[in-house]
Amino acid sequence: SLTYAPSFGIPALRGKWQESIFEKNSSLSGKKISLPVVTCGITHGISLFADIWVDPDDVVILPDMMWGNYNLIFSVRKGAKISQYSIFTENGTFNLKAFEDKIKEEAGKHKKLVVMLNFPHNPSGYTVTENEGNGIVEILENQAKAGINILAVTDDSYFGLFYEKKSIKESLFARLCGKNSRLLAVKLDGCTKENFVWGLRVGFITYGCQTEGDPSPVYEALEKKTAGCVRGNISNASHLSQSIVLKSMLSEEYSGEKEEKFIILKQRAERVRNVLSDSKYKDAWEVHPFNSGYFMCIRLKTVNAESLRVHLLEKYGVGLISIDEKNLRVAFSCVEESDIKELFDIILQGVEDLSV
Ligand SMILES: Cc1ncc(COP(=O)(O)O)c(C=O)c1O
What is the mean pLDDT of the chain? Predict the structure, then answer.
């Protein structure tokens, strides 16, 4: 018989995932974190996080480019206010100043801030550098020291897909953990993209905090609260999916198979960079910085992004996502390396069609 899983998740999987978090995040060395609680994919993790921690009229700080589902979860479901900063500077770096200004502005109005951090980022495919990452941590730590309660949540959906030297190679969760008693770090991650099993729906919520003395009782309480929320929501995540993930993680082929997939995606990202270095595209768009994940974005100079999206779909059968009036997201992760040049040539053709 296929029994229920515990609402917390299968103990062996929780242990294995926790072990893997330590392996993948060197700054966690010597720190204590909770055992992960299993969710039904990362969307469910975000939604559970919101159920437990977000009240109506709370503020959730996010960049101006963001995954659309945050809006459904935080604004529509929870009635919280999303407050946005502009993610990039003119020079194509993370806009630490805009982030700090936004945090200070909202800290002036709220005693509690929810700060969502998503690197590799959807939609831009950007991951912060070491300096930018440390800057984010310092800004949040300073506010916590000043008496603001901070919930710093990392959405690590695309974790591990880092293609360039300059970006940070661990989750900001690892650096936020243990910084201040007013700063609770929450890690939302899962197998969807990390393990390339989109339909299995296995995600995790893990906590990192600073306490006086042993944090274990605090973590136990947080795990129980979270599992209670799973219980009252979906009861428990699929036993079958959790068993498959656990078995795969214990298999000798696990890391080799992950590496193979990583290399395919990295080659696609490199091909995109290479193709876009051609000056023929420069009058049509600018390329937003990208160095990781599944996506990249172009900022159109002459045509409306939604009009171009519809035109490309109708005339050429090419499906992209428009982020706003100017920005189009390209999911290079799902395009064969050999088709990438053609893809951008079609986008350019689409721009030219709309310009006549
Ligand atoms: C930033 C971000 N968070 C969460 C998710 C959802 O992940 P899952 O499919 O595990 O619910 C996605 C996937 O599209 C995403 O882009």
Answer: 97
Pocket of ligand 1 (CB under 6 A): 41-43, 67, 118, 122, 155, 157, 190, 192, 203
- 296, 332 contact by CB (below 8 A): yes
Which residue, of 250, 279, 302, is where some domain finishes?
A: 250
Q: Count the alpha carbons within 13 Å of 268 in the hemisphere toward its beta carbon.
A: 26
The first and second tokens of residue 334, run together, are: 């799902």
pLDDT digits (tens, 9 = 90+) for 203-243: 999 999 999 999 999 999 999 999 999 999 999 999 999 99
Residue-wise burial string across 45-63, b where 16 or more C-beta atoms lie within 10 A, e elsewhere: bbbbbbbebbeeebbbbbb
Are residue 191 and residue 107 in the same domain, yes or no?
yes
| pLDDT tens per residue, range 1-16 | 789 999 999 999 999 9
Residue 24: C-alpha distances to residues 18, 146, 265, 331 (Å): 10, 31, 19, 25
Same-domain status, 228 and 266: no
Q: Rounded to the nearest whole angstrom, what is the distance from the C-alpha of residue 157 to the centroid of ligand 1?
A: 6
pLDDT digits (tens, 9 = 90+) for 18-27: 999 999 999 9
280, part of any domain: yes
Q: Is residue 116 classed as helix, strand or coil in its secondary structure?
A: strand
Ligand 1 mean position, distance from CA 166 (Å)? 24
Residue identified by tokens 């078995």 is 247
